[in-house]
Specification:
The protein has helices spanning about 25-35, 40-50, 50-60, 60-75, 90-100, 110-120, 130-150, 160-170; strands spanning about 15, 40, 80-85, 105, 150-155. The two termini are about 30 Å apart. Helix 2 crosses helix 4 and helix 3 crosses helix 4. It is globular, with a radius of gyration of 15 Å. Helix content is about 55%, strand content about 10%. By secondary structure, it is α/β, with parallel strands linked by helices.
Length: about 170
């Protein structure tokens, strides 16, 4: 169901989960441990089209999702550790592609998200209303995350070193 020409390569692991769950932070660490590259699909879209908030304001969410899907397809055709944007699982083709991958769902509590958003406000246009928006979006997407996940880790304690070790141990089982 992918829109690429070549078959999926099977990245070492794909991270999914709600915004501010730590997908990029842990994904980069896992990539270093595994000695492979790392791709954050949101960062790919930003590099090609500009800041996400500006994309939403200028082109709308539908255009962002189109560009996001293109970035997802390219990332899944690499041998990189991949971190998907929080809304990437909304796309049915992306969910189908993830069925062939090892997918780690990172979860986090709303209380921790509120603290993380305070550190980096304004970066996420869908969270203009703060943690209330996050809770609503997470509730709407939670079943999709769970549908594609092979394993789940919670990042609420903020101990990214321990979580990274746990993920790495699971990957090497």
């Amino acid at each position: 169901m992918t829109s690429g020409v070549s078959p999926l390569v099977s990245p070492p692991v794909v991270f999914v989960g709600p915004m501010a769950s730590g997908k990029t932070k842990i994904g980069k660490r896992i990539a270093r441990i595994l000695g492979v590259g790392f791709t954050d699909t949101d960062r790919v879209v930003v590099a090609e089209h500009g800041p996400i908030a500006e994309i939403f304001a200028t082109h709308g969410e539908a255009r962002f999702r189109k560009w996001e899907r293109k970035a997802v397809v390219a990332a899944l055709h690499s041998d990189h550790v991949v971190s998907l944007g929080g809304g990437a699982v909304l796309d049915a083709d992306t969910r189908a592609d993830l069925a062939m991958q090892r997918v780690i769902l990172l979860t986090v509590t709303p209380e921790v998200v509120a603290k993380r958003l305070a550190v980096d406000p304004g970066k996420r246009p869908l969270l203009a209303g703060g943690v209330t928006d996050w809770e609503r979006i997470y509730a709407a997407r939670r079943s999709l995350y769970e549908e594609v996940a092979t394993m789940t880790f919670d990042t609420s304690n903020g101990d990214f070193d321990t979580i990274t070790r746990e993920v790495a141990a699971w990957l090497t089982m």
